[in-house]
Amino acid sequence: MSLAKHIFKVGAWTGVSRVLGFVRDLLIASTIGAGRLSDIFLTAFRLPNMVRDLLGEGALSLAFVPMFSEHKNRKVIGPYFASNVFSWLMLLLLCITIVATIFMPVIIWAIAPGFASDPGKMELTITASRILFVYVILVCGSGFMASILNAFSEFAIAAMMPALLNVFIIGALILAMHLGVDENTLYLLSAAVIFSGIVQFFILWRRLRARKFGLRLIRPRVTPHVKTMMRRIGIGFVGSGFYQLNILVGSLIASFQTGAVTWLYFADRMVQLPFAIIGLAAGTVLLTTISDALCAKNFDKIYHQQNQTLRSTMMLTMPCVAGLIALAFPIIHLIFERGAWTPESTIMVAIAMSIQALALPAMTTSQVFSRTLFAAQDMKTPIRINVITIIIDIIIMLALVKWIGFLVVPIVTVFGGWLRNTWYRIECRRRGLYKTLPGTNRALFAFGALAAVMGGGLWLANAAGLITGIFTLGIAIAAGGAVYLPVAWIANKKIK
Asked: Does the pTM exceed 0.85?
Protein backbone atom coordinates (compact mmCIF):
# COMPACT_ATOMS: atom_id res chain seq x y z
CA MET A 1 0.00 0.00 0.00
CA SER A 2 2.92 2.34 0.74
CA LEU A 3 4.33 1.70 -2.74
CA ALA A 4 0.97 2.35 -4.38
CA LYS A 5 0.47 5.49 -2.29
CA HIS A 6 3.82 6.93 -3.30
CA ILE A 7 3.31 6.10 -6.97
CA PHE A 8 -0.13 7.72 -6.84
CA LYS A 9 1.28 10.90 -5.29
CA VAL A 10 4.04 11.20 -7.86
CA GLY A 11 1.65 10.34 -10.68
CA ALA A 12 -0.94 12.84 -9.47
CA TRP A 13 1.52 15.73 -9.29
CA THR A 14 3.03 14.68 -12.59
CA GLY A 15 -0.48 14.73 -14.02
CA VAL A 16 -1.02 18.28 -12.74
CA SER A 17 2.27 19.31 -14.32
CA ARG A 18 1.41 17.67 -17.63
CA VAL A 19 -2.05 19.26 -17.71
CA LEU A 20 -0.39 22.63 -17.20
CA GLY A 21 2.06 21.55 -19.89
CA PHE A 22 -0.84 21.01 -22.27
CA VAL A 23 -2.16 24.46 -21.47
CA ARG A 24 1.32 25.76 -22.19
CA ASP A 25 1.49 23.86 -25.49
CA LEU A 26 -1.97 25.08 -26.47
CA LEU A 27 -0.80 28.64 -25.93
CA ILE A 28 2.40 27.97 -27.88
CA ALA A 29 0.39 26.46 -30.73
CA SER A 30 -2.13 29.32 -30.88
CA THR A 31 0.36 32.12 -30.16
CA ILE A 32 3.47 31.25 -32.18
CA GLY A 33 2.21 28.20 -34.09
CA ALA A 34 4.42 25.50 -35.58
CA GLY A 35 7.01 27.51 -37.43
CA ARG A 36 10.04 29.76 -37.07
CA LEU A 37 9.65 31.08 -33.49
CA SER A 38 8.49 27.76 -32.07
CA ASP A 39 11.39 25.91 -33.73
CA ILE A 40 13.85 28.41 -32.21
CA PHE A 41 12.43 28.26 -28.67
CA LEU A 42 12.01 24.49 -28.59
CA THR A 43 15.52 23.91 -29.95
CA ALA A 44 17.06 26.36 -27.47
CA PHE A 45 15.06 24.94 -24.57
CA ARG A 46 16.10 21.39 -25.48
CA LEU A 47 19.75 22.10 -24.57
CA PRO A 48 19.29 22.73 -20.79
CA ASN A 49 16.84 19.84 -20.70
CA MET A 50 19.47 17.57 -22.23
CA VAL A 51 22.00 18.52 -19.56
CA ARG A 52 19.33 18.04 -16.89
CA ASP A 53 18.66 14.54 -18.22
CA LEU A 54 22.38 13.80 -18.28
CA LEU A 55 23.13 15.07 -14.77
CA GLY A 56 20.19 16.30 -12.72
CA GLU A 57 17.81 13.43 -13.47
CA GLY A 58 20.06 11.06 -15.38
CA ALA A 59 23.40 9.52 -14.51
CA LEU A 60 23.85 11.45 -11.24
CA SER A 61 20.45 10.57 -9.78
CA LEU A 62 20.67 6.92 -10.79
CA ALA A 63 24.12 6.57 -9.22
CA PHE A 64 23.44 8.77 -6.19
CA VAL A 65 20.15 7.41 -4.81
CA PRO A 66 21.25 3.73 -4.36
CA MET A 67 24.53 4.84 -2.70
CA PHE A 68 22.84 7.48 -0.57
CA SER A 69 20.30 4.88 0.64
CA GLU A 70 23.19 3.18 2.46
CA HIS A 71 24.19 6.37 4.29
CA LYS A 72 21.02 8.48 4.60
CA ASN A 73 20.31 7.53 8.23
CA ARG A 74 23.87 8.23 9.40
CA LYS A 75 23.78 11.75 10.84
CA VAL A 76 27.31 12.79 9.89
CA ILE A 77 28.28 10.70 6.86
CA GLY A 78 24.96 11.15 5.03
CA PRO A 79 24.92 14.98 4.96
CA TYR A 80 28.68 15.17 4.28
CA PHE A 81 28.45 12.72 1.39
CA ALA A 82 25.51 14.65 -0.11
CA SER A 83 27.20 18.04 0.39
CA ASN A 84 30.42 16.85 -1.20
CA VAL A 85 28.59 15.50 -4.26
CA PHE A 86 26.45 18.67 -4.44
CA SER A 87 29.57 20.87 -4.40
CA TRP A 88 31.20 18.85 -7.17
CA LEU A 89 27.97 19.12 -9.17
CA MET A 90 27.76 22.91 -8.85
CA LEU A 91 31.39 23.30 -9.89
CA LEU A 92 30.89 21.06 -12.91
CA LEU A 93 27.71 22.84 -13.95
CA LEU A 94 29.40 26.23 -13.76
CA CYS A 95 32.20 25.02 -16.04
CA ILE A 96 29.73 23.45 -18.49
CA THR A 97 27.69 26.65 -18.64
CA ILE A 98 30.72 28.83 -19.36
CA VAL A 99 32.03 26.50 -22.09
CA ALA A 100 28.58 26.08 -23.69
CA THR A 101 28.01 29.84 -23.76
CA ILE A 102 31.31 30.37 -25.57
CA PHE A 103 30.79 27.58 -28.10
CA MET A 104 27.03 27.98 -28.56
CA PRO A 105 27.28 28.87 -32.30
CA VAL A 106 29.06 25.56 -32.95
CA ILE A 107 26.54 23.63 -30.83
CA ILE A 108 23.49 25.08 -32.61
CA TRP A 109 25.02 24.53 -36.02
CA ALA A 110 25.63 20.90 -35.07
CA ILE A 111 22.12 20.15 -33.76
CA ALA A 112 20.07 22.25 -36.21
CA PRO A 113 22.07 22.89 -39.39
CA GLY A 114 18.87 23.37 -41.38
CA PHE A 115 18.26 26.66 -39.54
CA ALA A 116 21.08 28.28 -41.53
CA SER A 117 18.88 28.42 -44.64
CA ASP A 118 16.43 30.79 -42.90
CA PRO A 119 18.00 34.27 -42.52
CA GLY A 120 18.38 35.24 -38.87
CA LYS A 121 17.02 31.96 -37.51
CA MET A 122 20.41 30.58 -36.53
CA GLU A 123 21.46 33.83 -34.80
CA LEU A 124 18.26 34.06 -32.76
CA THR A 125 18.56 30.42 -31.71
CA ILE A 126 22.12 31.02 -30.49
CA THR A 127 21.09 34.05 -28.42
CA ALA A 128 18.08 32.30 -26.87
CA SER A 129 20.17 29.21 -26.12
CA ARG A 130 22.81 31.26 -24.30
CA ILE A 131 20.15 32.82 -22.07
CA LEU A 132 18.35 29.55 -21.38
CA PHE A 133 21.53 27.66 -20.57
CA VAL A 134 21.70 29.43 -17.20
CA TYR A 135 18.70 27.26 -16.30
CA VAL A 136 21.06 24.26 -16.29
CA ILE A 137 22.61 25.22 -12.93
CA LEU A 138 19.21 25.80 -11.33
CA VAL A 139 17.36 22.76 -12.64
CA CYS A 140 20.22 20.30 -12.05
CA GLY A 141 20.73 21.60 -8.54
CA SER A 142 16.99 21.23 -7.94
CA GLY A 143 17.10 17.72 -9.38
CA PHE A 144 19.86 16.74 -6.95
CA MET A 145 17.92 18.06 -3.96
CA ALA A 146 14.83 16.24 -5.22
CA SER A 147 16.86 13.00 -5.28
CA ILE A 148 17.73 13.46 -1.60
CA LEU A 149 14.07 14.03 -0.72
CA ASN A 150 13.07 10.98 -2.80
CA ALA A 151 15.56 8.86 -0.84
CA PHE A 152 13.68 9.91 2.31
CA SER A 153 10.38 8.92 0.59
CA GLU A 154 9.33 12.56 0.14
CA PHE A 155 8.26 12.15 -3.47
CA ALA A 156 5.42 14.67 -3.73
CA ILE A 157 7.31 17.96 -3.32
CA ALA A 158 9.87 16.95 -5.95
CA ALA A 159 7.08 15.95 -8.34
CA MET A 160 5.49 19.40 -7.90
CA MET A 161 8.46 21.32 -9.28
CA PRO A 162 7.89 20.85 -13.04
CA ALA A 163 4.44 22.38 -12.58
CA LEU A 164 6.07 25.66 -11.56
CA LEU A 165 7.98 25.80 -14.84
CA ASN A 166 4.75 25.45 -16.78
CA VAL A 167 3.03 28.14 -14.68
CA PHE A 168 5.82 30.63 -15.45
CA ILE A 169 5.82 29.85 -19.19
CA ILE A 170 2.01 30.10 -19.34
CA GLY A 171 2.24 33.52 -17.70
CA ALA A 172 4.86 34.62 -20.22
CA LEU A 173 2.73 33.44 -23.17
CA ILE A 174 -0.35 35.26 -21.87
CA LEU A 175 1.73 38.41 -21.49
CA ALA A 176 3.09 37.93 -25.03
CA MET A 177 -0.46 37.72 -26.39
CA HIS A 178 -1.19 41.15 -24.90
CA LEU A 179 2.11 42.73 -25.92
CA GLY A 180 2.15 41.24 -29.41
CA VAL A 181 4.12 38.27 -30.70
CA ASP A 182 7.50 39.05 -32.24
CA GLU A 183 11.14 38.16 -31.68
CA ASN A 184 11.00 39.67 -28.18
CA THR A 185 8.64 36.83 -27.23
CA LEU A 186 11.70 34.55 -27.20
CA TYR A 187 13.37 36.69 -24.53
CA LEU A 188 10.19 36.82 -22.49
CA LEU A 189 9.88 33.02 -22.53
CA SER A 190 13.57 32.62 -21.68
CA ALA A 191 13.22 34.92 -18.66
CA ALA A 192 10.20 32.93 -17.45
CA VAL A 193 12.22 29.71 -17.58
CA ILE A 194 15.08 31.24 -15.56
CA PHE A 195 12.78 32.64 -12.86
CA SER A 196 11.00 29.31 -12.52
CA GLY A 197 14.37 27.64 -11.91
CA ILE A 198 15.18 30.12 -9.13
CA VAL A 199 11.84 29.42 -7.42
CA GLN A 200 12.25 25.63 -7.68
CA PHE A 201 15.76 25.78 -6.23
CA PHE A 202 14.63 27.95 -3.30
CA ILE A 203 11.63 25.74 -2.42
CA LEU A 204 13.64 22.50 -2.37
CA TRP A 205 16.49 24.11 -0.43
CA ARG A 206 14.01 25.32 2.20
CA ARG A 207 12.46 21.85 2.44
CA LEU A 208 15.84 20.26 3.14
CA ARG A 209 16.51 22.86 5.82
CA ALA A 210 13.12 22.07 7.36
CA ARG A 211 14.22 18.41 7.60
CA LYS A 212 17.39 19.65 9.32
CA PHE A 213 19.43 17.95 6.61
CA GLY A 214 22.73 19.77 6.38
CA LEU A 215 23.19 20.16 2.62
CA ARG A 216 25.63 22.97 1.91
CA LEU A 217 28.36 24.07 -0.46
CA ILE A 218 31.76 22.94 0.78
CA ARG A 219 35.22 22.60 -0.68
CA PRO A 220 34.87 19.54 -2.97
CA ARG A 221 37.03 16.63 -1.83
CA VAL A 222 37.89 13.35 -3.53
CA THR A 223 36.79 10.60 -1.11
CA PRO A 224 36.47 6.83 -1.76
CA HIS A 225 32.67 7.21 -1.99
CA VAL A 226 33.00 10.08 -4.44
CA LYS A 227 35.48 8.08 -6.55
CA THR A 228 33.04 5.16 -6.73
CA MET A 229 30.15 7.43 -7.62
CA MET A 230 32.14 9.38 -10.19
CA ARG A 231 33.11 6.13 -11.88
CA ARG A 232 29.45 5.08 -12.01
CA ILE A 233 28.37 8.53 -13.19
CA GLY A 234 30.97 8.34 -15.95
CA ILE A 235 29.46 5.06 -17.11
CA GLY A 236 25.96 6.49 -16.85
CA PHE A 237 27.02 9.66 -18.62
CA VAL A 238 28.11 7.63 -21.63
CA GLY A 239 24.69 5.95 -21.81
CA SER A 240 22.80 9.21 -21.32
CA GLY A 241 25.05 10.86 -23.87
CA PHE A 242 24.18 8.27 -26.49
CA TYR A 243 20.49 8.76 -25.67
CA GLN A 244 20.85 12.51 -26.21
CA LEU A 245 22.80 11.80 -29.40
CA ASN A 246 19.79 9.84 -30.58
CA ILE A 247 17.58 12.85 -29.89
CA LEU A 248 20.01 15.17 -31.65
CA VAL A 249 20.04 13.00 -34.76
CA GLY A 250 16.24 13.15 -34.76
CA SER A 251 16.35 16.94 -34.41
CA LEU A 252 18.93 17.19 -37.18
CA ILE A 253 16.71 15.15 -39.49
CA ALA A 254 13.66 17.26 -38.62
CA SER A 255 15.47 20.61 -38.96
CA PHE A 256 15.53 20.26 -42.78
CA GLN A 257 11.72 20.38 -42.95
CA THR A 258 10.03 23.53 -41.63
CA GLY A 259 7.73 22.65 -38.75
CA ALA A 260 9.01 19.08 -38.33
CA VAL A 261 10.87 19.89 -35.10
CA THR A 262 7.61 21.16 -33.66
CA TRP A 263 5.56 18.24 -35.05
CA LEU A 264 7.82 15.71 -33.36
CA TYR A 265 7.79 17.77 -30.17
CA PHE A 266 4.00 17.80 -29.89
CA ALA A 267 3.67 14.13 -30.83
CA ASP A 268 6.21 13.25 -28.16
CA ARG A 269 4.42 15.45 -25.61
CA MET A 270 1.18 13.57 -26.16
CA VAL A 271 2.84 10.18 -25.69
CA GLN A 272 4.92 11.38 -22.76
CA LEU A 273 1.78 12.41 -20.84
CA PRO A 274 0.63 8.89 -19.88
CA PHE A 275 4.23 7.69 -19.67
CA ALA A 276 5.16 10.37 -17.15
CA ILE A 277 2.05 9.91 -15.03
CA ILE A 278 2.32 6.12 -15.00
CA GLY A 279 5.79 4.93 -16.03
CA LEU A 280 8.08 7.64 -14.68
CA ALA A 281 6.10 7.86 -11.44
CA ALA A 282 6.59 4.13 -10.89
CA GLY A 283 10.27 4.30 -11.82
CA THR A 284 10.93 7.21 -9.44
CA VAL A 285 9.44 5.34 -6.49
CA LEU A 286 10.89 1.93 -7.39
CA LEU A 287 14.47 3.25 -7.49
CA THR A 288 14.18 4.09 -3.78
CA THR A 289 12.04 1.16 -2.59
CA ILE A 290 14.07 -1.50 -4.42
CA SER A 291 17.33 0.11 -3.23
CA ASP A 292 16.06 -0.19 0.36
CA ALA A 293 14.91 -3.80 -0.20
CA LEU A 294 18.27 -4.75 -1.71
CA CYS A 295 20.06 -3.26 1.29
CA ALA A 296 17.89 -5.56 3.45
CA LYS A 297 18.38 -8.46 0.96
CA ASN A 298 14.59 -8.95 0.85
CA PHE A 299 14.13 -10.48 -2.62
CA ASP A 300 10.55 -11.62 -2.01
CA LYS A 301 9.62 -7.98 -1.44
CA ILE A 302 11.42 -6.97 -4.62
CA TYR A 303 9.59 -9.56 -6.74
CA HIS A 304 6.25 -8.57 -5.24
CA GLN A 305 6.88 -4.86 -5.88
CA GLN A 306 7.97 -5.50 -9.46
CA ASN A 307 4.99 -7.69 -10.41
CA GLN A 308 2.43 -5.48 -8.69
CA THR A 309 3.89 -2.45 -10.42
CA LEU A 310 3.88 -4.20 -13.82
CA ARG A 311 0.24 -5.19 -13.44
CA SER A 312 -0.93 -1.82 -12.14
CA THR A 313 0.98 0.29 -14.65
CA MET A 314 0.07 -1.83 -17.67
CA MET A 315 -3.58 -1.86 -16.65
CA LEU A 316 -3.47 1.94 -17.06
CA THR A 317 -1.03 2.12 -19.98
CA MET A 318 -2.80 -0.18 -22.46
CA PRO A 319 -6.00 1.92 -22.77
CA CYS A 320 -3.81 5.00 -23.31
CA VAL A 321 -2.13 3.27 -26.26
CA ALA A 322 -5.48 2.31 -27.75
CA GLY A 323 -6.91 5.80 -27.25
CA LEU A 324 -3.91 7.64 -28.72
CA ILE A 325 -4.05 5.50 -31.86
CA ALA A 326 -7.82 5.39 -32.34
CA LEU A 327 -8.37 9.11 -31.66
CA ALA A 328 -5.07 10.54 -32.94
CA PHE A 329 -6.59 12.94 -35.50
CA PRO A 330 -9.52 14.28 -33.44
CA ILE A 331 -7.29 14.79 -30.38
CA ILE A 332 -4.76 16.93 -32.27
CA HIS A 333 -7.39 18.67 -34.39
CA LEU A 334 -9.67 19.64 -31.52
CA ILE A 335 -6.96 20.53 -29.01
CA PHE A 336 -4.37 22.33 -31.13
CA GLU A 337 -5.84 23.47 -34.46
CA ARG A 338 -6.51 27.13 -33.84
CA GLY A 339 -4.69 30.41 -34.38
CA ALA A 340 -1.37 29.87 -36.18
CA TRP A 341 -1.73 26.07 -36.15
CA THR A 342 -2.39 24.62 -39.63
CA PRO A 343 -4.32 21.51 -40.82
CA GLU A 344 -1.01 20.14 -42.18
CA SER A 345 0.45 20.29 -38.67
CA THR A 346 -2.55 18.39 -37.31
CA ILE A 347 -2.10 15.55 -39.82
CA MET A 348 1.66 15.27 -39.30
CA VAL A 349 1.46 15.30 -35.50
CA ALA A 350 -1.41 12.76 -35.49
CA ILE A 351 0.55 10.33 -37.67
CA ALA A 352 3.74 10.66 -35.59
CA MET A 353 1.78 10.31 -32.34
CA SER A 354 -0.12 7.20 -33.39
CA ILE A 355 3.16 5.52 -34.36
CA GLN A 356 5.05 6.51 -31.22
CA ALA A 357 2.17 5.36 -28.99
CA LEU A 358 3.14 1.77 -29.81
CA ALA A 359 6.29 2.28 -27.73
CA LEU A 360 4.35 3.14 -24.57
CA PRO A 361 4.10 -0.38 -23.06
CA ALA A 362 7.84 -0.90 -23.56
CA MET A 363 8.67 2.53 -22.11
CA THR A 364 6.56 1.84 -19.02
CA THR A 365 7.79 -1.66 -18.25
CA SER A 366 11.40 -0.61 -18.92
CA GLN A 367 11.16 1.56 -15.83
CA VAL A 368 10.69 -1.53 -13.67
CA PHE A 369 13.64 -3.45 -15.11
CA SER A 370 16.10 -0.57 -15.58
CA ARG A 371 15.44 0.85 -12.09
CA THR A 372 16.02 -2.62 -10.64
CA LEU A 373 19.46 -2.79 -12.25
CA PHE A 374 20.33 0.73 -11.12
CA ALA A 375 19.09 -0.01 -7.58
CA ALA A 376 21.48 -2.98 -7.56
CA GLN A 377 24.22 -0.39 -8.22
CA ASP A 378 24.87 -1.95 -11.63
CA MET A 379 25.40 0.96 -14.01
CA LYS A 380 27.28 -1.01 -16.65
CA THR A 381 24.57 -3.43 -17.77
CA PRO A 382 21.74 -0.96 -18.52
CA ILE A 383 24.18 1.54 -20.02
CA ARG A 384 25.68 -1.11 -22.30
CA ILE A 385 22.17 -2.01 -23.42
CA ASN A 386 21.33 1.66 -24.04
CA VAL A 387 24.48 2.34 -26.04
CA ILE A 388 24.09 -0.69 -28.31
CA THR A 389 20.37 -0.16 -28.96
CA ILE A 390 20.82 3.56 -29.58
CA ILE A 391 23.62 2.93 -32.09
CA ILE A 392 21.23 0.56 -33.87
CA ASP A 393 18.50 3.24 -33.74
CA ILE A 394 20.74 5.90 -35.25
CA ILE A 395 21.91 3.60 -38.05
CA ILE A 396 18.28 2.78 -38.93
CA MET A 397 17.27 6.46 -38.85
CA LEU A 398 20.07 7.53 -41.15
CA ALA A 399 19.41 4.61 -43.49
CA LEU A 400 15.66 5.17 -43.84
CA VAL A 401 15.28 8.96 -43.59
CA LYS A 402 15.59 9.36 -47.36
CA TRP A 403 12.41 7.33 -47.92
CA ILE A 404 10.38 8.01 -44.76
CA GLY A 405 11.45 11.54 -43.80
CA PHE A 406 10.91 12.79 -40.25
CA LEU A 407 8.51 9.90 -39.48
CA VAL A 408 11.57 7.65 -39.20
CA VAL A 409 12.07 9.15 -35.72
CA PRO A 410 8.87 7.76 -34.08
CA ILE A 411 9.24 4.48 -35.98
CA VAL A 412 12.73 3.95 -34.59
CA THR A 413 11.49 5.02 -31.14
CA VAL A 414 9.09 2.07 -31.17
CA PHE A 415 11.67 -0.43 -32.40
CA GLY A 416 14.37 0.70 -30.00
CA GLY A 417 11.99 0.86 -27.05
CA TRP A 418 10.90 -2.77 -27.39
CA LEU A 419 14.44 -4.02 -28.06
CA ARG A 420 15.74 -2.20 -24.98
CA ASN A 421 12.89 -3.39 -22.75
CA THR A 422 13.32 -7.04 -23.75
CA TRP A 423 17.05 -6.90 -23.10
CA TYR A 424 16.56 -5.28 -19.66
CA ARG A 425 14.14 -8.03 -18.66
CA ILE A 426 16.49 -10.80 -19.78
CA GLU A 427 19.36 -9.32 -17.76
CA CYS A 428 17.24 -8.95 -14.61
CA ARG A 429 16.07 -12.55 -14.84
CA ARG A 430 19.59 -13.82 -15.50
CA ARG A 431 20.89 -12.14 -12.35
CA GLY A 432 17.99 -13.23 -10.16
CA LEU A 433 16.74 -9.66 -9.79
CA TYR A 434 13.34 -10.38 -11.35
CA LYS A 435 10.89 -13.25 -11.22
CA THR A 436 7.53 -13.38 -13.00
CA LEU A 437 4.96 -14.32 -10.37
CA PRO A 438 1.93 -16.49 -11.23
CA GLY A 439 -0.79 -14.65 -13.11
CA THR A 440 1.25 -11.63 -14.21
CA ASN A 441 1.52 -12.59 -17.90
CA ARG A 442 -2.16 -13.59 -18.05
CA ALA A 443 -3.16 -10.26 -16.54
CA LEU A 444 -1.04 -8.30 -19.03
CA PHE A 445 -2.59 -10.22 -21.94
CA ALA A 446 -6.08 -9.50 -20.58
CA PHE A 447 -5.33 -5.77 -20.35
CA GLY A 448 -4.12 -5.76 -23.96
CA ALA A 449 -7.22 -7.55 -25.24
CA LEU A 450 -9.59 -5.29 -23.31
CA ALA A 451 -7.75 -2.17 -24.52
CA ALA A 452 -7.97 -3.36 -28.14
CA VAL A 453 -11.74 -3.75 -27.82
CA MET A 454 -12.01 -0.29 -26.26
CA GLY A 455 -9.84 1.23 -29.00
CA GLY A 456 -12.00 -0.39 -31.68
CA GLY A 457 -15.10 1.16 -30.15
CA LEU A 458 -13.49 4.62 -30.05
CA TRP A 459 -12.36 4.31 -33.68
CA LEU A 460 -15.88 3.37 -34.77
CA ALA A 461 -17.33 6.32 -32.83
CA ASN A 462 -14.97 8.69 -34.61
CA ALA A 463 -15.57 7.08 -38.03
CA ALA A 464 -19.32 7.47 -37.49
CA GLY A 465 -18.89 11.21 -36.98
CA LEU A 466 -19.92 11.16 -33.32
CA ILE A 467 -16.86 13.12 -32.19
CA THR A 468 -17.35 16.69 -33.36
CA GLY A 469 -15.90 18.83 -30.58
CA ILE A 470 -13.96 18.89 -27.32
CA PHE A 471 -17.11 17.98 -25.37
CA THR A 472 -17.90 14.88 -27.44
CA LEU A 473 -14.22 13.91 -27.46
CA GLY A 474 -14.21 14.05 -23.68
CA ILE A 475 -17.40 11.99 -23.49
CA ALA A 476 -15.93 9.34 -25.83
CA ILE A 477 -12.74 9.08 -23.76
CA ALA A 478 -14.70 8.98 -20.49
CA ALA A 479 -17.06 6.32 -21.86
CA GLY A 480 -14.16 4.18 -23.01
CA GLY A 481 -12.52 4.49 -19.60
CA ALA A 482 -15.78 3.82 -17.77
CA VAL A 483 -16.17 0.52 -19.63
CA TYR A 484 -12.52 -0.56 -19.62
CA LEU A 485 -11.32 0.29 -16.11
CA PRO A 486 -13.89 -1.63 -14.01
CA VAL A 487 -13.51 -4.73 -16.18
CA ALA A 488 -9.69 -4.50 -16.12
CA TRP A 489 -9.71 -3.92 -12.35
CA ILE A 490 -11.87 -7.02 -11.80
CA ALA A 491 -9.64 -9.04 -14.14
CA ASN A 492 -6.55 -7.91 -12.22
CA LYS A 493 -8.12 -9.06 -8.94
CA LYS A 494 -9.39 -12.37 -10.29
CA ILE A 495 -6.21 -13.42 -12.08
CA LYS A 496 -4.00 -14.88 -9.36
From this structure: no
